[in-house]
# Entry
Amino acid sequence: MVKQGQYLERAVVIPGASALEGLYHRGSRRPGLVIAPPHPQDGGAMETTVVAELAYAAFRAGHPTLRFNYPGVGASPGVFDEGLEVGMRALRQSLDHLGESLGERPELSALGIGYGATLVARAALEGALDPVFLVSPDPDALPELSPIRAPVVIVVGQMDPRANRQTLEARLRGVPQGRLVVIPQADRTFLRGLLELGKVVAETLSPPGMIEIL
# Structure
């Protein structure tokens, strides 16, 4: 678990039509990772335990990270509505900002949790993200994944009622580098199994980068 003082992220203002609150940590390895939180109605914010822990796991593996708050959440101004467009603008804004921070020819990855997973999957269809992490996604909200050429890793908790393995494997069908990881005894919040989830992310970002399905 992350302990106070273990590492220091820098508070940033992510520019755009409506600025966003973010936390950034630099790293020497590529790709950089943007983390999209769960839906605000599900307690989604950049300070959410699972978001903070995944940022820490990526940092420990040497990768730059950027996590952000949606409009109307925390210190991000604006209003969050129920649709996807506000979330998509926030994610694109964050990806652009991290890309600019990394300099020329940036390499970017993205991870989304719940609602954030839907956003990341859509962003992966728009541009170069490698790899793509979908944590606790709602299978019915995901777009068609087969056009994505980058590695797509879906991670779910064994106790998550939405985590129907057959359904998720079907969603990955046609993705050249699709992978489903089931974390034993974890539910949708990952308050149990958080270290295992972080390990999946860190070992996928950093070569050799592949582990067996748990």
Q: What stands out?
A: The chain is about 30% helix and 20% strand. The CA atoms of residues 81 and 87 lie 9 Å apart.
